[in-house]
Amino acid sequence: RAGVSQVLNRLTYTATLSHLRRCNSPIGREGKLAKPRQLHNTQWGMVCPAETPEGQAVGLVKNLALMAYISVGSLPEPILEFLEEWSMENLEEVAPSAIADATKIFVNGAWVGIHRDPEQLMSTLKKLRREMDIIV
């Protein structure tokens, strides 16, 4: 098969990072369909809506968002337990009127709950990550 491997672009550090975070869609570049080239709603926060090449490959080559991180073999249950200990409210237990004033929490792309003090939660997560108490 042609096009299975690529030479890693090491011109600059950011070019290398961009190349390593690239996702190629296995669709012919000459197709005129618009749907495969558009971002799907489920890709929100995971795929960058701006970084795509111009020309025939527009929308078919996508890049991970800046804050997206792929972890291999991690279960969501320990993360959910941790978030519940730090005042996350489960989505099933929250009134719809209370959601507007809170911050949504997503785990593996699934909306699992809300939090009323996201700055405190983020500072706690960063502190624990830097102390190597959790792996995020």
Automatic annotation (TrEMBL):
GO terms for cellular component: DNA-directed RNA polymerase complex. Residues 6-70, 105-134 form the RNA polymerase Rpb2 domain. One of its GO terms (molecular function) is DNA-directed RNA polymerase activity. Keywords: DNA-directed RNA polymerase, Nucleotidyltransferase, Transcription, Transferase. Its EC number is 2.7.7.6. The keyword Transferase applies. GO terms for biological process: DNA-templated transcription. It holds the Pfam family RNA_pol_Rpb2_3. Belongs to the RNA polymerase beta chain family. This is DNA-directed RNA polymerase.
